[in-house]
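Re-running the complex after MR caught last week's input typo. The corrected sequence lines follow. Everything else is unchanged.
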Amino acid sequence: MHFAFDDHQREFRAQLRAFAEKQCTPADLRQAWASPLGWSRRRWEALAQMGVVGMTVPEEHGGMGLGLVDVVLLLEEAGRSGLPEPLLETAVLGVPLLVGATGPVADQVRDRWLPKVAAGEAVLSVGTSSMPAVPGAVGADLLLLERAGEVHAVPAASVTLVPRPVLDGSRRLAQIEWEPSPATMLVPASESAGVLAALGDRAAMGTGAVLVGVADRLVAMAAQYAVDRTQFGKPIGSFQAVKHHLADALVRVEFARPAVYRAAWSLSEGERDASVHASMAKALASDAAVLAARSALQVHGAIGYTWEHDLHLWMKRAWSLAAAWGDAAAHRARILASLVGDA
Amino acid sequence: MDLRFTPEQEGLRAEARSWLEANVPSRPGGPGPLPSLDTREGFEAHRAWERTMAEARWTVVSWPEEYGGRGAGLLEWLVFEEEYYRAQAPTRVGQNGIFLLAPTLFEFGTPGQKDRYLPPMASGEEIWCQGWSEPDAGSDLAAIRSRAVRRGDVWVLDGQKTWCSRGAFADWIFGLFRSDPGAERHRGLTYFLVPMDAPGVTVRPIAQLDGETGFAEVFFEGVEVPDTQVLGAVGQGWSVAMATAGSERGLSLRSPARYTEAAGRLVELYRRCAWADPAAAARSADAVARAVVDAEAYRLHTYWTATRVLDGGTVGPESSMNKLFWSQTDLLVHATALDLLGAQAEMLGDDGRPPPWLDGFLFALAGPIYAGTNEIQRNVVAERVLGLPRG
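Corrected-run output:
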């Protein structure tokens, strides 16, 4: 039992943090929100050069061949810095889906697309038929789409996108009009159950990791504001009502974090209860982020309710991701069903 | 990162499991659960259980062997605790001494004090209670007024301590007294160790919510104490008492196994209720899952923190977050169980005692109050972790 990251993993996170502090400021985020894409191709290329984009791409395809334990700190950092690029969609949802694909065209798709992903030249997006719209579809080059249990790899050029704007300005969802064909069949329905279950687990864990980072940032912003803002002649952070809001939010964030790390380890090791662990991670992280957003807004007061203040850039991410890939209650229901069904 | 236990840790687990299965009083064919800890008879029965455990060196696994332990590490202690709660073994009557005083003794005690106090603590021969709170010093603990006055070569203690857990039947008390009457607040306090049968000590048991005497008031009138019963430096009592609060003690006050075990029983209760009355059970389903998830989150956070401590890190004020989390988890688990039991929840057993879920609920209600109220812990988290200004 050694529940900690190694020096390489921590160093990689530190590199991403240093990069984001320069290249992903709140001003950069606002610029991304105002752009047609919602994120920046230039930043994506820079992330690819750091190895972040291709971190999960196998080495033979030009990536780093890292596992989920290596990746989880980067996802958390992406949340913390508000990084708008589709890192989760590409590196944690799409790439492992391609790597695990078993269908007739899988080898061909891998050979064609994985090197491009690692080089920062292709972006992936993953959608299932249960979604109202597919996250990261706008700007994606290859869409991995499930319908009736089949998974297809569909180049963006061959589909019609109907963008569906959402509250978070850098999450560009779209409805996709497409037709499956034998030439796009990545995983046939008869073989997809495990692949799709694994996708859902990775999505729960990965989204949870981003949420922990988002929540961490929200608490930090509110704590700083509580030190800076003066009322009744003293910083509002000296009042217990304010302290207790932030302490409670911080506790939920700090206790979600190890659960997310454990889920990454369990998925990476193929542990028997890995799906339950992923659900625990998502349930804890979703609740922590929603509480952090709520508390941070209350501590900021009216200024936090404005477009001009940066708080909403992270609050909206918290709300979106808390509901994505199963909200907290849905994951708790799955956990309980698994526990009760075990008997 | 590797979340598997080592073969040695699994070996300790197997050894603990088989010993507990053969010895726990509530085992099939055993004498049955012990009477309540908060009665004279129950207290002595729990002391006897400590003795039985000590003979097999299970009371203080993480202590050095010379004091009755096994020299095991923090992770091994957590493994043992998982087995202890899994076996539904008796409440540890010695826990105030073992988990609150002993870490301080290891850090500040003289060799003579360690030799004198640790072995009988490990064997259950001497059970300790704590003397922190006073009638006018609760959350504001630094308002302590009980005095220690130097007279010749002894200290003379006067004053009153209250809410002393285990105080009704304990053999010794540890606590803070003001040794410098001119000093205020955290300064001028000294940490004393006092036998409860010393002349001038009077104990008045206090009945708790369940009607039994889980704690007591302790009065000191001219109680003479030698220098050998001062722990740490004179006048440094506050920092002596607080020094270990953030280290191992921050982890060991409440081991996660307690909550994961209770959450497991809650799932069993839910399963039975879902069979008998699916609609009623469905109303509590989300709370049951919350309890399970939070208990597991506490366990994971403990292993995460334990690894950091073993790698040379410290805990510090983060221990206040632990206290907030476990106390809330304990309440969630037990309140949800009472919801599932519905109208049955208020029933006492044939012996007039609360049955386990109700008993656990009453105990859980104390969690947000003792060991520093949760409001105080939130202040600590806000000020010392988040850096907010003091009020």
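None of the earlier attempt is carried over here. Chain B touches chain A through 49 residues (CB under 8 Å). The two ends of chain B are 41 Å apart (CA to CA).
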